[in-house]
Amino acid sequence: MSESKHDQNDDQTKTNDQKKNDPMKNEGEGNRTADRQYREGVRRHVESGASESAAEEAQHALEGAEGDELRRAEPKAKAGRKPRRDDPESHKKAS
Q: CA-CA distances (angstroms) from residue 30 to 16, 35, 39?
């Protein structure tokens, strides 16, 4: 037996309503949900004290045998990634 037109419309309406309430919907640029989640994660990380141990580990690395290598790598890391030949966006000048 086939579904009636009325049943099909009800199913379509339910689907559209589900899309409106979908927590994973694309909010576009300026995604407030992602921003809120990111900020909450950063806050929890900082409050956990994990940042302090990572900073101490980095300090020891700089003072240790690999310090010279890390200092040589720093300017390159600060400069960012190299543009790819096949990525036209990476060749644009920052304004």
A: 24, 8, 14
Rounded to two decimals, the pTM is 0.41
Q: How would you label 52-63 residue by residue, b for 16+ Cβ within 10 Å and e otherwise?
A: eeeeeeeeeeee
Residues 83/90, Cβ–Cβ less than 8 Å = yes
The tens place of each residue's pLDDT in the chain, 95 residues long, gives 555 565 565 656 556 555 566 666 777 778 899 999 999 999 999 999 988 998 999 999 999 999 999 999 999 999 987 777 776 665 555 54
